[in-house]
Each structure stands twice: as C-alpha cells, then as structure tokens.
C-alpha cells in the first residue's frame, strides 16, 4: 500500500497524540482524582472531627509541670493557703495570726504580715468560692474578711527595665507582688489584698472554739461555738457611725441546742449550710450532729449519725465543697467519703453519696476547689490524690517524696496544686480536662447533691456558681427512643400498607399520580411540620383528646366494615365496581372520623369516669380504663392471630358450598364477634391487672401536657411516611413480574399473591425501609424541638413531653462555651446520633443489597 | 389501628393441603379475595393522602387568606366595654363557671341559660383589636353571650403603622401643620389619599438616606479605625505607619462628619415636611390619638371597600411581604431579607456542592477501580444522606466557625495553637513541598507509563495517590502552625468576623450535608449512559477525558441538574444545622448587597425556615405572629416544591432522552 496516498485522497492524520490532548488528559485525571478523593476526605473529616472533639472528654487529667521550693515552715502547719491564678505565689495563714506570701518557684518570701497583733486567733473558717472568711478569737469576738489576690494591669512605661524586658509567660517580682507578661503582651500585676473587718463583739466573752459563716439573702450569719459550751447562731449587725464614719459590728443571735454535748470533747469541725439553716458538727470519733435551724424560733437537734461506720477509725479532716452542701470526711484509714443533706418534707437526712476507698495512710489535709467539685486529699505517706466528687473519679496521684503534707491548696482555675510539708512547698501544674465525664456519669445513675437517690439527670446549666452540672445522656436517649417509637408506631403501618396497596392493587395510572405526590412530601421542610405540630395540631388535639384516641380505632374499623359490606354486594356488581374501589375506600373515611366523636365521648364516659384529663392527673376512676386503652391494640393482634389459626379454617370448612352472599354474611359475623372478643379480652386482662394493683398511669399514660408524644408521634410519623413508603414501594415493585404472573396464573387471587409471594420476597426491602425510617426519626430535630416541651423527663407516657438528643443540641449548643465540658458532651450527643443513624442505614443498605441480589436471582 | 386491619392474613388456600380433587369454586372465593385486608391497605393509603392533602390545603388556605382585608366589627359587651377590630378566628369552647361571674347579674342567668341550651358549648371569636400603645393588648376573645350590640361602623379605619402594630379607630380630623383641614370622614379620607403617597415616598427616601448614606459613612469610618488599629498592632504606636494611619483616620473622620451633617439635615427636611401631615382618630372606647402620616404604612376603611379595593389591598400586602424588611420584631412587614438570605445561601451552597459532588461521582464511576474499597465508600456516601442534619450543624459550628473561622480572624494563637519557631517551620515547609513534588513527579511518570499499559505504571499511580494523601496531614499541620500569620481581622478582635456563624459557613455546612445527594444522582446518571457509547468514542480514538467531556457529561447533564436541584431543595428547607452556623432572628445587613465586595461571606443572615421557627416559638406575641408564620410557610413550601417539581420534570426529560439514545 502506498503510504502517502489514502483511499479518500486526504492526507493521513498524524498518528501521534497531540500534546494538548495529553495535557488535558493528565490535568483532568489529576483534577478529578484530587477532587473526588478530596470530597470523600472532607466527608470523613466530619466524623474524625467529632471524634477528636469528643475524645478529650475521656482523657484523664495530666500533670504538666512540677516544682519544689524549700521554705522553712517547720514550726507550724498553715491553717489555710491560697494561690493566685497564674500559680506564681501562695499565701499561708498560720495559727499565730501571721500571714506569709511566698513565691512558688523560688520560695522567696515576698511579704509577711502579722494580721492581729493584739488578738489571739483561735478559730478560722474558709468558704470555698473565695467568699468571706470568718476568724474567731480568744476574747470571744469574731472578725469577717477576705484574703485574696488583686489583679491590675501596669503601664509598660512605669516599669523598671528588667521587668519590661520580660518574655511572654515570664514573671518577676515587683514590690510585694508578681508581674506576668501575658500572651497579649500586657503586664499583669497580682498582689495580696487583705481586708479584715473590725471585730464583732459577742455578748459573752468566751474563747471561740469553732466558727463558720454564710452569706444569706438576709445578711451575714455566723455560728460560733465557744469554750463555755454554747453554740450560737448569730446575725452580724452592722452599725455606721455617721460622725466618725466608722462601722462597728455586733453579734446577736440565738442559742442552738448543744447542752448535751457541752461537757464532752469539742467537735473537730463546724459547718453551716449556704442558707444558714442547717448546722453540722463533726467529731473525731465519727459523730455527726445536724441541727435544723430553719425555724429560727425553735432550732432543733435533727440528726445524729456515725459517718465512719467503723469504731477503730478516726476522722482526721473535714471540708465542705463549693456550695457548702457536701462534706468530705477524711479518716485515719485514708478513706474520703462525701456526705450531704437530702431535704425532705418530714425529716431530711444526711447520706453518704460518694466513697473513695482508703490507701491505709491517714488523711492529713484536704483542699477543695473554688469552682468545681474537685478536691485534693493528702495522706500521711506523702501521697496526694486529686478527686472529682460527682463522678467518683481519681484524677491524679502525686507524691511529696516521703514527707507528710500538712496543708494543700488548689489553684483557682483547678489547673494546679500546691502542698506544704516540713521540707517546703511542692507545686504541680495540672490539666484537669473534663473530670465530670466518665462512662458512669454519662450512662448510669449518679447521686447528685440534694437528690434523694442516684438518678439519671440531664441539667447542664444552673443559676448559681456552685451549681453541680449533671450530664447523663440517658434521659435524652430515652427521649429519642420514645419519639422514634411512637412515630414508628404510627408511621410504619401506614406507610407499609399504603405501599402494598399502591404496588399491588392500584391502577397504574393512579399510581403515577399518587407515588410522586407522596415522594414530594419527603422534601417538605421539617420546620413546617414542626410549626404545624407545635402551634396548630397540639392545640387542636388538646381540645379533643378522647376523639383523637377514638379515631385510632374507629377509622381502621370503618375501612374493615366497609370491606365487609362490599363483600355483601353481588359478584357481578362487585367486579364492575372494583375499578373504583379506591374511591369507595376514600368515601368510608369521613364516617370513620365522624364516628370517633360519639365513640370518644362514650369512651371517656365509660373508661375514664367522664373526664379524661382528671383521670390522667390521677383523680377518680379505676385503672381499668387506661389498661383497656393500652391493651386494645395488643388484644386486637392476639385475636387476629387466634382467628387465623383456629377460626378461619373452621369458617372455610363450614362455608364450602354456601353462596357468596351467605359466605360474606358468615364472614361479617366472624368479624363482629372478633371485635367483641377483642374488647372483651382487653377488658378482662385490664380487670386482672387492676386487681393486682397495676396502673397504666405512670407507665404509658400520665398527666397531659400540650406538647406531647402523641402529637410528635403523629407528625413525625407523618414525616417518615414518605421515605418508608418510597423505599417499600420500590422494593415491592421490583419483585420480578413473572412471579406475580405465575401466581395469578395458578389461580391465586391478587391478595393471595401479595401476601404469599410478593411480600415475602420483598421482606428484606421492607425491613430496610423501616430501618431508614427509624434513622430519620432518631435524628429529626425541628419537629421534636417545636412539638415537645423539651423537658428532659424520663417516662414512656404518651401524654408527656420529652427531650431528644437532637433537640438538646439545638437548644444548648449555641450557648455552650467552646471546648468546655458541656460543649464536648453535646458533641458526644451528636456523635451518638451520627453513629446510631450510620449503623441503622448501613444495616438497611446491606439488607437491601441482599434483597436485590435475591430478586435478580429469582 | 394497625392490628385489626391485618385480620385475615393467615387464611389458607382452600383445599390446598387436603389434596381433594374437587376444589370448591363458589362462595369461598369471597374469603380468598381478602377484601377486608385490601381495604385495610387502601385505607392506610387514604389516610396518608388525606394527611398530605389536608396539610397542604391548611397551609395554602391559611397562607392565602391572611392578607385579605377583613371587615371591622364593633362590639359592645354587656359589661360596657367596646371593642373594634377584625375577627381573626372563631371557635367553640366550654366556658368555665367563673366566666359567667364576671358578667353583670342580669345578663349572667341569660348567658348561662343560652350556653346550657347549646349543651354547654359557646362560640367565641378572637378579635384583633390592635391599639397596643393605648390598651396593652393586641387581641381579645369575645364570647357570643357577652355581646350586647354588634355593628360594622362605616368609617372604621384599619391603620397599619410602623410602630406599635395596627390601629383601629374612626377618623375625626385631618391635620395640616396642626390645623384641622377636614373633619368630615369623606373629606379626611380624600385628604389622606391625596397626601399619603407623597409622605410615604419622602419617608422611604429618608430611610434610604439613613441606611445607605449614613451606613456608608460609618463603614468608611470603621474601616479607617480598623486600619489604624492594625497599624498599631503590626508596627507599634510610635511607628511612622501608625502616624500615617492616624492621619488618614483623622481625615476620614472629619470628611465623614461634614457628609454626615449634610445627610442628616436632608433627612431632617424630609421628616419636617412629613410631620406636617397628621391624622386624628378616635378609638372605639373614645380615646383620641393623633397619628403622623409618616408612621402609617397603609390605611383603609375596611367596611367601605369594594371587591376591587380588597383585591388591591390583598396584592399590595403580598408585595409588601415579598419586598420589604420586617418590622415589629418580625411580626409585620416583609420577609425580603429572609428570602434573600435563603437564596444567597442556597446558591452559594450549590456553587460549592455541584463541582465537588460531580468530581467525586466522576471519580467513583469513571476513574476509580471498582473493588471492595469503592463499594464501601459508595455505601458510606449513601448512608451520609441519612445522617441527621443537626450533626452537620454541630460539625459546622465546631470546625468552620470555631476552628477555621477563628484561625482566619486571629491566626494560630486565636485557636490556642502555639506557632512553630520560624526555623523549624521552614524546615517542615520544605519537607512538605518535597513530598508534594515527589508525589507530582511520581504521578507524572505513572501517567506516562500507564498509557503504555504497564503494571509498573499502575503501581506508580497508586503510590502517587498514597503520597498525596500522606502529605495532606503535614500540610494542614504546617499551615496551622505558621508563625507568620496572625489573622486577617486581628484589629477587630475580640469581636469575631469569621469566627462566628455566617453565610459562608452555613453554605459550606449545607454543602457537606447535600453532597451525597449530588454524588448519588450524578453517579446514577453516569451509570445510565450506555457503555456502548463510551466504547464507540474510544474506538474513534478519543481519550478518556475527551470521551467524558463530549459523550458522557452531556448525556448525564440532566441527571446532574436533578441532583443539584434536589440538593438545593434539601438545603433550602434545612433549619436545624443553620441555627448553629449563622441564621439569625434579625440581620441588620444582607449577605449580598450593592456595597463592594458585594458578597459578604462572614455576615449572618436571615432564613425563611429559621424565620418560621423564630416567629412561632421565640416570638413574644405569638398570636400576632401567626399570620406571618403561615405566609412564610407557604412561601417556603412553594420554593421547595418548585425546586422539586423542576427536578421531577428534569428526571422525566432525562428518561426520555435515554430512551432515544438507546436506539
């Protein structure tokens, strides 16, 4: 062949691919691969990021730094120490009334004051949270005051050169304080600020043994135990002298019942509650005496108990936690137990809610946090444990190398700890992370302060600083399950039955209209449904609860009754009308709805003593009515099963040879007796249950609230119908046509074909539809947000509200502080939702793939 | 209801087991047909359809009638109070015994008897009485038995005001410069109609001046202030840069002050001119009130309207709803910012989601080697479409707003990351660049070898991809730890710019949420392009990219469009995630407007769905908000339905096209 000439005469095209094509090929491949993988990576990032944020919750606290400075405090242990925010220095108050300020890194003494040169200090009390301090003296007087650090920012121009040259994060001494160069480049000065008020004289000058104070709404209250055996609850009276401008203080109060103990050894510790109405006395031998002073006119000795419950031990230290509600009792075995008072109508009691087992070495010192429920405990063998009381967690264990720690202090932000022993001061910086959260505190019962027993509670924020956050996910998970349960209960039967009708009995032309209409509903914004549920439907249902309940029974019954009447039609007429059957079914619905009104009224009269609301609130009427209502659906299922097993074969045998009309009549009779049997069964079981004293109120029924599970069940059921319907219908339609044709050809009716051939084949498809519906219901946010009261209560009552994981996130996340425990716990809720729905969907997908393979094989 | 409808499920085929030769043909067919069960399934469908239709009809009717002007009713109750207002709702209820005790004794028995005759049920109507500034309430329930006299006053006037909500009363005078110029209702009305348009025009001009003129000035001033602060942060107060910035700020400030005074005087003139016109009305209970015309949005004598007038008012209210900003804590006025916000966010989202979704689908369908990994990825992507939207919101808030946004605002330090020392950073940078370059080279070589169909080339290609993926984490690390970046909006700190919710973050979050929709739809349409066409193209000598561009993509385009529209419909209707990443109750400025740079990605925005939630559940006066909720709902459903119908239409078109291409 001639290479130059081609058949067409045109010059041959070049064989070599042009470089622009190469380049485009390379670039497009690179772009598509990068973009594709990038998109997939971005999607994975969602999961990874959630995991990353949540992961911090379960890390334990870490000790990030340690320092030791030698200070000669051998002569006495400090009564109390305090640390500044930057953990640069610490003050210590000694029994002789002197106050020392030292640098923590070098041990340098920055300042030393003798606070009370002409008084002898005998008792002190410090309240966690940086509140007022009470000091008691030998002359019987009491002084209030505060010892804390003052922060101010300095102008760089006024500073000496060596201080101005500080690197960020470094600190230096200025006068009697410390200056820190902050990350923002400012110079922050912290100084000790001591403000002790003038003495408040007591009526009888007797040395103060123990003292405690509380700031109540009515003023400052002080409880004083004096050496003459008097325990007095005093109010501090303030008097301003207008001429001199001086303020004088006086104590005035009542005697508390203490005579019984006046002659014994004085107690080890004295505390009063934040409201000033409970006074607690702890003795070395483990005795705890609680005096109830709610009634100021008649304070009474309310409770005496043993907090050790072991005669061979001794109480060595007691401290109260933030909020002055919980007391940590350390004993000679090293055990630390947390006690608090549980108020009750009649008689409250003090209970032990948390127990940290001992190590064998006695507790020598306790320190409590100013902002949370953590505490540090020092043992005689030099070990120091950092505890978090609510979650029973030991955050860290430290050691002061064989010395006996005599005094402890926690940094104001919980991120550090210092211990004083004979050898000086040991200091640790700690990253506490999130000690509130453990698997136990998230998923099992926790005993919170003032609660009667361990409970599941979600309450993330409170009004006061001393609020104990409660992070149990269980009420939210229960809420989520409840919402899903009731909506599936309503949505699944409707969607599946509707799908069966559409795919098996509907004319293709009608199907072409009906199916897209329902599919379109899948994209209806859920906020619309939520609005309708919360503002329209909830108000509507509230007015006609009995009618709504009745319609759950009357509407299906109406369809069935319609069908039995249809069967009475002559064969030929029925065949002619069969095309318009759907129209007739539609016509039956309004009578069914209308029937609900009288039936509802009747039901209310017979079952609920004439007033459903009152009955639900617990007033009047026996429990039978509620049980009947709950049991009716169950007994309907039972009677259907019994019918199918025993009655139907019998009816069939009996009707052989009867004509159509007679058969239909027998069938109708069977149906009626089945209905009667259902009601009877429910009634009998209800009577039995009532006889045994069970009551549905509190289980499935309860006081009515406007936005409740019934409303959510309806509307969210409605929201998941389209998705279940679409998938189920697809599954039913994709059953190969030859199966259907074969079945019909062998003489089976359409219904027999549907129930025996189509539905079993498509079963896995139907299952996956329900799974996906469940996934939707679990994660739905707007409907539950708008249609429930969003109260995290735990019950299964259909008439009460609840709070789901998703709604909880929507409500609380906008206010959560970034990276706080609350924030991360909400992320955990999101991750839980993610995991639940992902697993459900994957399960559904696997089942569906199996179904598809099977359908192709058939 | 579910159980009983399944009744004869377990029916046996007659005679099946017994093996008898003669099967009964008559009678039993009734049982075999399972009519009750069919009716049960049909009933479920009827209930579902009824609910859907009922819901749509409810929203449609409530949304459509809201703006129709109602007649004004004047009611004198038996205890002597007089109300004038529009009837918004009526219902029947069971009055408690205490209701009657508030009535005067003579009427009490009569009312009690009337209610008893009606089986304890009474009708009551909710009257919108307005005049909140005088009475302290917007609405009043009036039961039928309370009414002593009911009439429809001819000159009852509905006045929609800018503040305090509606006013209902009868006009007594039209004031010009404080002097009465008309006192007869006809004349007053004529005067009002005469002047109101001009007043409204002047008012809108003054509002425009205020918003655009003064707004622009304060923006300019703010920018200069920020520039000065930035100079202070970067160079220190004693530097020359700071001096320049300071001087500039002083100039801008003085210029702005002059301009400000000019605009303000202009506004003053307009307002002064407007203040001349006033309307004096008297309420039903005899209180007088003078309303400046400028405060009146719309007024009409409700009981004198012809049908044409009513239609006019109806449409003017719709126009106001669609084109105006909200007033009165969102309960009145329009929803333009919400529409605008929804549209802007959705468009921005589709700008992101479509390219990436299509790229991912192309990769999965055309480039990736199908194997177990790819099927797992495909299933995972399918499943992501079912992950609750709130989860994406949580991610968006934590990742975009609090991490990326804060990084943009203030650099590494703002997200509590310590920057690397410069030397280390450059070293790390160099390493990353080397790895990247290596990956690129390996990929290039691999591509050439692959063209020769060698196995080595394929391995090289995989190695390159692995290298790319491996270098991803170090790149992120190096970028996050840069010592040379301290934020684009450092001067604005601590108030966040990108570090909080905004339209950009909302659209990115929704893009993540909807990307599975696009991927699935695109993949389906790519799969639907017959392989024969690809093979034909290859046979003609086209390269892979040429085939995709010329043959595959055009055929798949309608499917891609469907995916995009479905994604938009889903994105437009989602509320839960955007609550967390930027939708707000009331945004002072639009995310897209006429001010450079036109698109403001950091601004928070209003959204129709969030508007519904906010109006229905956060509004103090939920009764007054109710009509607005319905109309907003109607609008949102309309938009979403329109998008969906478009998708359905496109899908059917696509199907037709495939049918053609099969031949």
Describe this structure in words.
The complex is a heterodimer of chains A (858) and B (663). With 858 residues, chain A is of the alpha+beta class. Among the domains of chain A are: 143-198, no CATH class; 478-623 and 697-854, MetI-like (MetI-like fold), CATH 1.10.3720.10. Helices cover 41% and strands 24% of the residues of chain A. Chain A is built from 19 helices and 33 strands. Chain B has helices spanning 29-32, 35-65, 97-101, 105-117, 132-135, 185-235, 240-275, 307-323, 336-367, 372-384, 389-414, 422-451, 455-480, 503-528, 531-539, 544-573, 576-581, 608-617, 622-662; strands at residues 72-77, 82-93, 122-128, 139-143, 147-151, 157-161, 167-176, 179-182, 277-282, 288-292, 296-301, 326-327, 332-333. Among the domains of chain B are: 72-161, SH3 type barrels (Roll); 179-275; 336-419 and 483-657, MetI-like fold (Orthogonal Bundle), CATH 1.10.3720. Chain B starts with 28 loop residues before the first helix and ends with a helix. In chain B, β6 (157-161) and β7 form a beta hairpin. Chain B is α+β, with helices and mostly antiparallel strands and 663 residues long. In chain B, the strands form 3 sheets. In chain B, strands 6, 7, 8, 9, 10 and 11 form a 6-stranded antiparallel beta sheet that branches. Chain B has a 5-stranded antiparallel beta sheet with strand order 4-3-2-1-5, with no helix packed on it. In chain B, strands 12-13 form a two-stranded antiparallel ribbon. In chain B, α6 (185-235) packs antiparallel against α7 (240-275) and α9 runs antiparallel to α16 (544-573). At the A-B interface, α1, α5, α6, α7 and α8 of A face α1, α2, α9, α10 and α11 of B.
